[in-house]
Amino acid sequence: MLKKEQLYEGKAKKVYRTDNPDLYWIEYKDDATAFNGLKKGTIANKGELNNLISAYFFRLLAENGIESHFVEEKSEREMVVKSLQIIPVEVVVRNIAAGSLAKRLGLEEGTVMSRTVVENYYKSDELGDPLINSDHIRALNLATPEQMADIRAIALKVNEILRAHLAERELDLIDFKLEFGLHNGQLLLGDEISPDTCRFWDKNTKEKLDKDRFRRDLGNVEEAYKEVYRRLTGR
């Protein structure tokens, strides 16, 4: 497979064409952003760690019947994925109150929710990815009700699989963001699953092992990402 010209560069990844029109070549970057791009910086080795962690999770989910755009790793910071027509709805699954949910609802961070909360956000950098509901999604023709029902079911299944897997590694899955798209008409999980898109806390100490360390200037960001990878792989 040949890596060809760059198609797009986002906040966390570069996307390249390949000699197969159904496949893209993704390169993960060390660049870090927060608060809709208002805060910018660099996290050493973030690209490699997010690529490897995402590949790990995509393989785990595939073993449990959840299909994604992931095809294969090409290097420590590169992977090949299936091309997707992205559905512009970001899905956030929350198990424990943190971040914007804690602020919005006046909850103490760390409050365990009595049930899992699933939220939808309009994927728009220009608008700051606003929170939306099913009526907004239908009015804007972002996705069909059937697609959103499937997306919700997949998101909850992903939550179930990841929570159990991480608990065995002494990690709490606080919340996480998913993106979906269509590949030749098939709904697939896309984007990444990493400390950039998830909140991971140490189950015992509640130490944050995710991008919140960058958002909140807590320090030791690279070490936190490495710790997640170590607990997943033993390496």
TrEMBL record:
GO-annotated molecular function: ATP binding; phosphoribosylaminoimidazolesuccinocarboxamide synthase activity
Entries under CDD domains matching the protein: SAICAR_synt_PurC
InterPro entries: SAICAR_synt/ADE2_N, SAICAR_synt_PurC, SAICAR_synth, SAICAR_synthetase, SAICAR_synthetase_CS
SUPFAM superfamilies reported in the protein's UniProt record: SAICAR synthase-like
Top-level taxonomic group: Bacteria
GO biological process: 'de novo' IMP biosynthetic process; cobalamin biosynthetic process
Protein's recorded name: Phosphoribosylaminoimidazole-succinocarboxamide synthase
Organism: Desulfotruncus arcticus DSM 17038
Gene name, Swiss-Prot/TrEMBL: purC
